[in-house]
TrEMBL record:
Pfam families: Aldose_epim. It comes from the Eukaryota. Keywords: Carbohydrate metabolism, Isomerase, Signal. The active site is at residues 191, 320. The keyword Isomerase applies. It catalyses: alpha-D-glucose = beta-D-glucose. The keyword Metal-binding does not apply. This is Aldose 1-epimerase. It is an enzyme of class 5 (isomerase). One of its GO terms (biological process) is hexose metabolic process. It comes from Nicotiana tabacum (Common tobacco). One of its GO terms (molecular function) is aldose 1-epimerase activity.
């Protein structure tokens, strides 16, 4: 009994310390740099705010959409570059039942929850735990303590994300979440808006995309999965072979916004490859997650971004590696439940290269 009391006291102290540190925590911008390859991150939302690398002519360009000021990130509704959690994507009805207990969450998209609620991980200030700006392996690790009951979720969770630059032109992103005292759903991801031609070069409809997935999880009229896992063959969702992003987009209302069930059974799965002919840039994505959300920035409309450039629909694409949306309400989907003492790890590797022809 005394050990349980001690644990409760420790968790209470941890909660008080975490709350106090968040209130007094400064928001900053941190760069990791390796030659002509650099990434800037803010600890507000653990967000990627720029990724600079050369094109086939050696010209350095920024390949993610974003803003010039932290204030704009605070007011953002598109999740530009942000970390997503405790559960990325949607939970239908903002509710679920786990181990006989029904949990009602904070709805922030009609009756549903999107990307963790009103105060998801994209809207909190993370602690900078480790930071190495230069050298052979520059990286930054950000941490966050998510308290029991936050946005309605059960249990205390310790979360971290590490952004690291690897050779050559590789960006590694590793999310970790440890459930401390209750089973809880965890689905960590992040939301960079990629335009590998350059953030200010217009739409991505001529970029060529390949997704290593032969199935999707169809949606109802509220964008909640129906529970089916359907083949992409003979549909506009088929990117098993490379296609231009815009080649069939007019057959889908507004544009792409759906989860793909990745084919590979490997721990580190091939996810997608994107190619921009004009710049010559290629982005290859691998991840440990079972799914990827392909989204074509359908609702980015007249959004003033970096350098005053105005972003419009289809000005970027998102490839958010993730557990399946609403998995907590679909037993046939891969489980996102993490039990006490266990750590969920989600690794993503972006490899950039150049095609000069």
């Amino acid at each position: 009994m005394s050990s349980k009391i001690n644990l409760l006291i420790c968790l209470f102290i941890l909660h008080l310390c975490a709350a106090a540190s968040v209130r007094g925590r400064k928001i900053g911008i941190y760069e990791i740099k390796k030659g002509d390859f650099s990434v800037k991150i803010t600890n507000y939302g653990a967000s990627i705010i720029s990724v600079f690398l050369p094109d086939k002519h050696g010209k350095i360009g920024d390949v993610v959409l974003g803003y010039d000021t932290i204030k704009e990130y605070k007011n953002d509704t598109s999740y530009f570059g942000a970390a997503l959690g405790r559960v990325a994507n949607r939970i239908g009805g903002a509710q679920f039942t786990l181990n006989g207990t029904h949990y009602k969450l904070v709805a922030n998209e009609g009756v549903n929850m999107l990307h963790g609620g009103l105060k998801g991980f994209s809207k909190v200030v993370w602690k900078v735990s480790k930071y190495v700006r230069h050298g052979p392996s520059p990286y930054i690790t950000l941490t966050y303590y998510s308290a029991d009951g936050e946005e309605g979720f059960p249990g205390d969770v310790l979360v971290s994300v590490t952004y690291a630059l690897k050779d050559p032109y590789k960006l590694s992103v590793v999310f970790k979440a440890r459930a401390l005292n209750k089973a809880t759903p965890i689905n960590l991801s992040h939301h960079p808006y990629w335009n590998i031609g350059g953030h200010n070069t217009g739409d991505v409809l001529s970029q060529v995309l390949q997704i290593y997935a032969s199935h999707i999880t169809p949606l109802d009229n509220q964008h909640i999965p129906t529970g089916e896992i359907s083949p992409v063959k003979n549909t506009p969702y088929d990117f098993l072979k490379p296609h231009k992003v815009g080649s069939r987009i007019n057959k889908i209302q507004n544009g792409y916004d759906i989860n793909y069930a990745l084919d590979s059974s490997k721990k580190m799965k091939p996810v997608a490859i994107v190619y921009d002919k004009k710049s010559g840039r290629v982005m290859d994505i691998k991840a440990t997650a079972p799914g990827v959300q392909f989204y074509t920035a359908n609702f980015v409309i007249n959004t003033k971004g970096k350098g005053g450039y105005v972003y419009q629909p289809h000005s970027a694409l998102c490839l958010e590696t993730q557990g399946f949306p609403d998995a907590v309400n679909h037993p046939n989907f891969p489980s996102t439940i993490v039990t006490p003492g266990k750590t969920n790890v989600h690794s993503v590797l972006y490899t950039f290269s150049i095609k000069k022809y």
